[in-house]
Every structure is written in structure tokens, then in C-alpha cells.
Amino acid sequence: MAHYAFLDENNIVTEVITGKDENNLDPGVTDWETWYGNFRGQRCLRTSYNTRANAHLLGGVPFRYNFAQIGGSYRDDKDGFVPPKPKDNPSFVLDESNLTWIPPVPYPEGEGEYAWLEQEQRWIPLARLLS
């Protein structure tokens, strides 16, 4: 089973579908990306369900940085998908190394869990937030 993302003219993902594996070629079909793209009249690119932050969840080879998401985008220069920017975190910046959104302040080192406070632009201990 393979997954494919359809892109609009601005490289925004409009839909993600489950489609034919590249190994499962019908007679006359040599490239499913091209076939689906021609069928829909929209650019179509394969995406990997098991790829997140340029790592493969099952230990395989990462493919196109991230699994495509509706509202996300595709970067030609990186041959990778960027997830949509978190609406609740407008301060987050794009990490170019893995095409994910990260807070502008690094996660605190050491033990414990922390929560990001967008309005204050800082991390606080999760235990303090819950008390």
C-alpha cells in the first residue's frame, strides 16, 4: 500500500490518498505519481506514512522528510513535505534539518516534562502548570 499527496499550484497539499504500490504496476503504467497526477489534473507525489521529522519510524530509509498532511506544503528544494504550522503556536519556526515546526526557545535539558506557553514564549514545568 502506498500513499500519494495531491498538490495545488502553490505546492499546498490538498488531499492524501492510499493508492497502488510502485511495485504493483498495471500494464501500461510505469509511474503511479504521473498516472494519478494526470488522472486528477493535479501534481501528485508519493509520501511515506512511516516518515516523520526525516526519520523512518520502523528503521527504514526516510522518504520526503514527513508524511504529507492536508494544508501542509511540499518543498521542491528539499524534496520534502512540511506539516502545517501549528495554529496555536505562531512563534514556532521551521527546522530546516527535518522540516518540522519547533519553538523559538529550545526544550529545557534535564529531567521532567515541560509545556510551552505561547503567550509568554517560554517553557514551564508541566507539574507546575497542572497544579
Structure notes:
There is one protein chain. With 131 residues, the protein is mostly beta strands. It folds into 2 domains: 84 residues, no CATH class; 46 residues, no CATH class. A 3-stranded antiparallel β-sheet has the order 2-1-3, with helices on one face. The chain is elongated. The chain starts with a strand and ends with a helix. The mean pLDDT is 93.
SSE layout and pairings?
Elements: E1 2-7, E2 13-19, H1 32-40, E3 43-47, E4 51-52, E5 55-56, E6 73-75, E7 80-82, E8 93-95, E9 100-102, E10 114-117, E11 122-125, H2 126-130
Number of helical elements: 2
Q: Could you describe the largest sheet, including whether it forms a barrel?
A: 3 strands, antiparallel
> Approximately how much beta-strand content do the residues carry?
25-35%
Please list the strands of the largest sheet in the order they lie side by side: 2-1-3
Distance between the termini: 46 Å
Class based on secondary structure composition and strand pairing: mainly beta
Question: Globular, elongated, flat, extended or rod-shaped: what is the shape?
Answer: elongated
User: Secondary-structure element sequence?
Assistant: EEHEEEEEEEEEH
Please tell me how large the radius of gyration is.
Answer: 18 Å
Count of DSSP strands: 11
